[in-house]
What we know:
By secondary structure, the protein is mainly α. Helices cover about 80% and strands about 0% of the residues.
Amino acid sequence: MLIGIVAISFSSIFIKWSDAPASVQGMYRLLFTSLLMLPFARPYSGAAFALRRKDWLMLGISGVMLALHFLLWMGSLKYTSVASSTMIMALEPVFIMLGAYILYKEKSTSSAILGLGIAIIGVVFIGWGDIGLSADNLTGDLLSIGGTVAVAGHLLIGQKLVARMPSYLYSLIVFISAAAVFCVYNLLSGIPFFDYPPREWGIFVLLAVVPTVFGHILFNWLLQYASATTVSMNILGEPVGASILAFLLLGEQLTGLQWSGGVLVMSGLAVYLYAGRKKAVKVKEALPSAS
């Protein structure tokens, strides 16, 4: 979880450094990640052939949702700051908690909801000093909200699918699907595929290796051991890491209120995870021991 949080915190920095369209960044990010994963996919070929038609349909939908997330959220960083965009992204657990309740009847404890509330307040503190009233900021905020809803749907579908298939295979198929969606989008929009300087290609590779391999793939793997709500709560650490990196690498200034918000985010995250751990222990104690 900690490795994943640090890794995805670099995502917004790399995106800010790039001048390429968000759809091109997203396409090569997912394409390069898929190429890195393919040599290790052979052991999962049997599981791929065992997938049902419904599974392939859900994998395709998950890929579309992931592509939509990258397109909207990466696009938001062209209009607003790292702190504002990642602050809105931290609302992801709210959408997932609602979706998990509606789709899977998954309930959360009062302690978990308290932790979520503390973390959300902290995230608001982080972005408070950076949210403006300009048209650009508003556009960026709306794009980030759309990207948040899309990734919530992606994770909820993933929670269902990784219960029946290896998370590695799930990640690979979804990444290829999302890359194909970006390819069609760029083709229809007339966006060039190859006319980019070497610096941009280096950023595309960094986006694939750091936040995708060590971030999204790790979070997909964690879906085998934790709910989508719990995994998404760990993504709340991204605004803290991203804001610190933006301060160090991009010169984006942070106020005392924003630093305090970072402390609240991590505190809320700790409360949520502790509540989930207590719940898991109670369930384990309630199960009869096999003798």
